[in-house]
Amino acid sequence: MSFDHLVLGATGEFLNIGDIIATLVIFLLLMALLKKFAWGPLMGIMQQREDLVASEIETAEKSRQESQQMLDEQRTLLKDARNQAQEIVENAKKQGEVSREEIVTTARSESARMKEQTVAEISNEREKAIAAVREEVVALSLLAATKVLEKEISEEDNRQLINETIAKAGEVQ
Amino acid sequence: MDHGAPMYQLFGIWFNLSNVMMLLVAALIVFLIAFIATRNMKLKPTGMQNFMEWIMDFVKGIIKSNMDWKDGGRFHVLGITLIMFIFVSNMLGLPFSIIVNGDVWWKSPTADPTVTMTLAAMIILLSHYYGLKLKGLKGYSSDFLKPMPFLFPLKIIEEFANTLTLGLRLYGNVYAGEILLSLLAGLAGASILGFASAILPMMAWQGFSIFIGTIQAFIFVMLTMVYLSHKVSEDH
Known about the structure:
The complex is a heterodimer of chains A (173) and B (236).
Chain A: H1 17-150, H2 155-172
Helix pairs in contact in A: 1-2
Chain B: E1 7-10, E2 13-16, H1 17-37, H2 47-64, H3 69-72, H4 76-92, E3 98-100, E4 103-106, H5 113-142, H6 152-190, H7 192-232
Antiparallel strand pairs in B: 1-2, 3-4
Helix pairs in contact in B: 1-4, 2-4, 4-7, 5-6, 5-7, 6-7
């Protein structure tokens, strides 16, 4: 049994340079072909995917920032609106207070004026009444005197008459 | 056991036709797998595309564990082609062997030292080429004096040792596997009893050879990247 075939590079008695050339050519050719037909497109699509993922992440980040910004904006707006509403309410309150005060003052002065007017009217009426009574008394006295003078009457009658007249005057008054 | 090889002389150069044929078969299989797998590629990968992308990422991981992707990206295509080619080559000799008129025709192409040594020498030459290209003559030659100038002879020996071990490790593993397989096949073909006793070890050894073939393909690419990174990277 020969061990020649186990000796390195000794497949028989020749150095097979042909195998070396064949190995190199076949391997390099395979590498070139695969690069053109398989690895190139595959790497391209993997790169494409990487780009896609990166851009998607970027977009997501951007829209997140945008929404954050909008949220802040809305928050500010809401705050402003709340402040404004509070201001409006306060203003209305103040105005209400003012107009209440005004109304009360007006009413008070009106009532005072009316009271005064009434008092003046009353005293006026009273004056008028007193004047009227006086006139009446004078008229009655005149009437009584006339009657006394016209009729010859006794003292008693006279007295009675005067009393009657006075009573009448009291009634009138 | 003592089978010859179908030698053929062309223009004064000797060819082992079995090697040439098996290399072509391996290359064809690798090309077909890769070509078919990369048809109808989509951004959302399915089926075979997933598989090829996994191989790409796997080799990418090997390269990244040895050097910067900035330096190592250029070796990606080499790494993927190498790992698939060697894996398919290692597998080819496992199911059967064809011997015509005492000449072995069907075997693993990597069970021949000429083929594996050619691949190894190619890798080492490539590492020197890229070392010169990327670091310049000064940086490249100063690497031989690191870490200590008196280690220069060892550095020279290391280059040859690397080439030899890289090629012969692959050859030895695959060739040993095939020898044992052919011994078991001889036993199985001898008699009924031989067949019965050979079937279990045969299955076990074939399974183990698949494992070895896979591991050796991985180791070859891993060491390729290690040697390349030694020449290319600054920090080594």
